[in-house]
Design brief:
alpha/beta, Molybdenum Cofactor Biosythetic Enzyme, Chain A, Molybdopterin biosynthesis moea protein, domain 2, Molybdopterin biosynthesis moeA protein, domain 3, 4 domains, seven-stranded mixed sheet, about 20% helix
């Protein structure tokens, strides 16, 4: 078979990604390190949260009726209890956020809504029953769904799990990614970028490898233990471009080039049951090819729901955005408010266009681009899941 690139449609590359199975494994991790991980199974609430009425804020537990008519010009005095116990008419107790609501109390007054003296307070705000109180089950009811499976755990999710008494959660294992750089001269450029991208998309980076010789490249492709193999560079026609030949030697080439720009030299295949993506050696093309295809694959293997990480915003173009028909164009743009300013579309080698950009617009292969003032979806570099 010829090793000359024969680029496929982007849709064919995306369909190839969908062939690979979703992550089905699971592992238990402490709640303290579960942030950002993908939940492996649905969690149900085993008890009402809170189980009993509790104080939603720090302040004074009291009977709301004792505050009727209180204000800055009409402070009402209440005796301050020295010890915890049932709250009677005309009395209040100092409480902390999260404390059980004392018997007899039906509201909690904020500290700043009262003036404190040694054995009393003067109330300056009127409360209604339930103010400053979390009622039983207000956070979650017993047997209700707590969190859905496949959810990426956020900090607030971890706090809710802590309220539910959860110490460990079952999450999808991080997909193990082996990165090989075909040319040593590119390692200092591509490895830091790919390491950050892999971490963003839920991957666990295996020890890095260089493979300037074809025998080393074949060894790297055959080494066990990876769920995904990424090779940066070596898909061209120079004497030391050996990635394509190595993949052909020890595995299968499924897609020999993809009609994306930058990133046409992307090659997709497999070694045994492990997917392999050969990414271009140019930093900008490598970034774009990773974002469009490799990120989609890694997120699938890691159990993430969204195929791409970047959040999108609808914006108007400040000027025309042109593209060549027949390729999916990654057009970098700068953002000013709700408007997008094209930075570059035709040049696919200058990394600084992505550094200056706030995001990118995808121009479909069948389109010549967008006219000035067209509304487009901007994928934002700094806003991602």
């Amino acid at each position: 078979m010829s090793l000359a690139l024969d680029p496929s449609r982007p849709e064919d590359a995306f369909a190839w990604v969908e062939r690979w199975s979703l992550s089905v494994g699971r592992e238990s991790v402490p709640l303290t390190v579960a942030g950002g991980r993908v939940l492996a199974r649905e969690l149900s609430c085993l008890k009402d949260i809170p189980a009993h009425a509790s104080c939603a804020c720090a302040g004074y537990a009291l009977q709301a009726a004792d505050t009727t008519g209180a204000g800055a010009y009409n402070p009402l005095p209440l005796l301050l209890e020295a010890e915890a116990g049932p709250i009677e008419h005309g009395r209040a107790l100092r409480v902390a956020d999260g404390d059980p609501l004392p018997a007899g109390a039906d509201a909690v007054l904020l500290c700043e809504q009262a003036t404190r003296f040694e054995r009393s307070i003067e109330v300056t705000s009127t409360l209604a029953p339930g103010d400053g109180v979390l009622l039983p089950g207000m956070e979650c009811r017993k047997d209700d769904e707590l969190l859905q499976a496949h959810r990426r755990l956020r900090p607030q999710d971890l706090a809710l799990l802590g309220m539910a008494g959860v110490k460990e959660v079952q999450v999808r294992p991080l997909a193990r990614v082996r990165v090989t750089v075909a040319h040593r001269s590119a390692a200092d450029v591509l490895i830091p970028m790919l390491t950050a991208l892999i971490g963003r998309d839920g991957g666990s980076l295996l020890p890095l490898q260089g493979a300037s010789q074809q025998t080393n490249m074949i060894s790297a492709l055959r080494e066990p233990g990876a769920d995904l193999i990424l090779v940066a560079g070596g898909t061209g026609y120079e004497e030391d471009d050996n990635a394509l030949q190595a993949l052909q030697h020890c595995g299968e080439i499924d897609i020999n080039g993809v009609c994306i720009h930058p990133g046409t030299g992307t090659v997709l295949g497999q070694v045994d049951t492990v997917p392999v993506a050969l990414l271009p050696g140019s930093a900008l093309a490598c970034l774009c090819a990773y974002d469009l295809i490799a990120a989609r694959l890694l997120r699938r293997l890691s159990g993430k729901q969204a195929p791409w990480p970047y959040r999108r915003r609808r914006m108007a173009l400040t000027r025309k955005l042109a593209s060549a028909i027949g390729r999916l164009e990654v057009a970098r743009v700068a953002v000013d408010g709700d408007r997008a300013e094209p930075i570059a579309t035709a040049e696919g080698r200058v990394l600084s266009t992505a550094v200056r950009a706030d995001g990118f617009v995808l121009i479909p292969a069948q389109s010549e681009g967008y006219a000035q003032e067209s509304l487009v979806d901007v994928h934002l570099y700094d806003e991602y899941d």
